[in-house]
Specification:
With 115 residues, the chain is of the alpha+beta class. The protein has two domains: 42 residues, no CATH class; 64 residues, CPE0013-like (CPE0013-like fold). It contains two helices and nine strands, in the order βββαββββαββ. Strands 5-6-9-8 form a four-stranded antiparallel sheet, with helices on one face. The protein has a three-stranded antiparallel sheet with strand order 1-2-3, with helices on one face. Strands 4-7 form a two-stranded antiparallel sheet. The protein is elongated and about 55 Å long.
Length: 115
Amino acid sequence: MKLVCIRCPRGCNLNITKKSNGQIIVTGNSCPRGEEYGKQEITQPKRTITTIQKTDFGTVSLVTSKAIDKNLYFDVLKKIKNTKVKPNPQVGDVFIKNIFKTKVDIIISGIHMCE
């Protein structure tokens, strides 16, 4: 598998190989973060989700408190879409706590009021 590492600005071209014994070999990385990223991408890829939610008063920006399993990405977006923003939200408020029992919260990261 070939990937471009996104853990630092270098953008190393990684080559990731999984051997028959389960060992994962990562080459092409310039730092240890590249090896960590490559191994995670092949075993359990994760993503940070950022999105917006429209409300009666404007739009709120939302972000996961940490990266979440990639296979939950669209389920998380659907849950966000179907959850109503409570009145008077503040930046830093938890919008959804412990989504899908992952220990990841959805946090309000910005508020954009309608004029």
